[in-house]
């Protein structure tokens, strides 16, 4: 490619204005072809709102970050594996971004040829998938940092987690160790496990130095039973409780981070843009997210929310 470019430059020098005209025509031709073909192909599923808006924001983030022509292809609900193969038939040199679980479920390495493949728009955790990309799961560092800002005397966090989310727990332990914060991890498989463990936790919890953190799906085992119980017991004891679910904050938990879809797109777009360099293996945590705070809960717990943290929060509950 460089040799071709060098020869063309020599022609420009020798041929004067006519050669310059030819040179510009050739350049614009290839730019036009690149834009038409798309140097990056994004495949995303056909979905309804609000999921469609989430994918739209991710695609916008990718487009801004990647700095190359983008082509998008929506995968119909009725699409088959053969449809997916046909979609890739003439895309052997494009970088391909699979957004969402459905395109990923059709992925076969042998179909991709020389195309570098990236993934995003999924909830899988780092370490669970080998393809490079960015998870919708937010780096626990954000929640732990916010919790420390709100509870400066925090010494211990009791973490309830599903055994399938071991990478999430390991990340929390790594972060907490660096901050001299103890982690008590409790693995649960169902609502009964959660209720039983909570009973033991509440017997000895110190609200001045401890907090509870519920991993994804742990409350979802039985939301109707578990959430009211956790909220009542923690409220009576003035214990700070956080999770990774926005709806929990709306109803009374102290804080949660939820995905910033445009930022997720920008993060994976940056990986794609740098694909000619060594690419990290596997998924990365989402490095940013939206913070939600419940100011009524904070007031009940005697917490003074730092102004900088309050300015970051969107939304704040209860709604003013």
From TrEMBL:
<dbReference type="Pfam" id="PF04392">
    <property type="entry name" value="ABC_sub_bind"/>
</dbReference>
<dbReference type="InterPro" id="IPR007487">
    <property type="entry name" value="ABC_transpt-TYRBP-like"/>
</dbReference>
<protein>
    <recommendedName>
        <fullName>ABC transporter substrate-binding protein</fullName>
    </recommendedName>
</protein>
